[in-house]
């Protein structure tokens, strides 16, 4: 795993901005044109968190934690994308629990959720926000 020290001084001798300063809240993942609908991509955020990024067939982008809460492994980006009653989902490749890509809840155990992240496309590049979107437990 790569660790990024955001408190390192730059070549000019000035201190770099940290993730919490607001200037580095978005991590560029890849050009949108490089994503394949239905296949996930693992992204390491500036904050050090791992995120699973998905482009769906309808063109929507979703980002959830890459850590499977049951198996405790960074594998959600390798999960099987599908839907339940029209709701986009990803199934863990380990124990096959299914999670909503809309709100992160586990459809097999509503007490468990994946963290969600905001996604945007900026100048053709997919970017993920470093701060988790807070959702309430059911």
Report on this structure.
25% of the residues are buried. The chain has 138 residues and is mostly beta strands. It starts with 25 loop residues before the first strand and ends in a 5-residue tail after the last strand. Strand 5 (80-84) and strand 6 (87-91) form a beta hairpin. The chain has no helices and nine strands. The strands form two sheets. A six-stranded antiparallel beta sheet has the order 1-9-8-4-3-2, with no helix packed on it. It has a three-stranded antiparallel beta sheet with strand order 5-6-7, with no helix packed on it.
The amount of helix comes to under 10%
Overall spatial form: globular
**Distinct helical segment count:** 0
H/E series: EEEEEEEEE
User: In which order are the strands of the major sheet placed?
Assistant: 1-9-8-4-3-2
Radius of gyration over alpha carbons?
16 Å
Quantity of strands, as a count? 9
Strand content: 35-45%
Report the mean per-residue pLDDT as an integer.
85
Sheet having the most strands: 6 strands, antiparallel
Which residues form runs of ≥5 with pLDDT under 50? 1-21
Oligomeric state of the chains in view:
single chain
Distance between the termini: 33 Å
Secondary-structure content class: mainly beta
């Amino acid at each position: 795993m790569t660790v990024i020290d955001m408190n390192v001084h730059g070549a000019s001798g000035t201190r770099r901005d940290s993730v919490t300063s607001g200037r580095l809240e978005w991590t560029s993942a890849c050009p949108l044109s490089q994503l394949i609908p239905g296949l996930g991509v693992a992204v390491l955020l500036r904050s050090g968190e791992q995120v699973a990024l998905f482009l769906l067939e309808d063109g929507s982008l979703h980002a959830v934690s890459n850590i499977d809460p049951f198996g405790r492994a960074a594998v959600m980006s390798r999960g099987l994308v599908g839907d339940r009653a029209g709701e986009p989902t990803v199934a863990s490749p380990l124990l096959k629990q299914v999670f909503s890509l809309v709100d992160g809840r586990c459809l097999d155990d509503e007490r468990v959720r994946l963290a969600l992240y905001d996604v945007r496309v900026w100048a053709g590049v997919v970017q993920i926000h470093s701060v988790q979107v807070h959702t309430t437990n059911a």
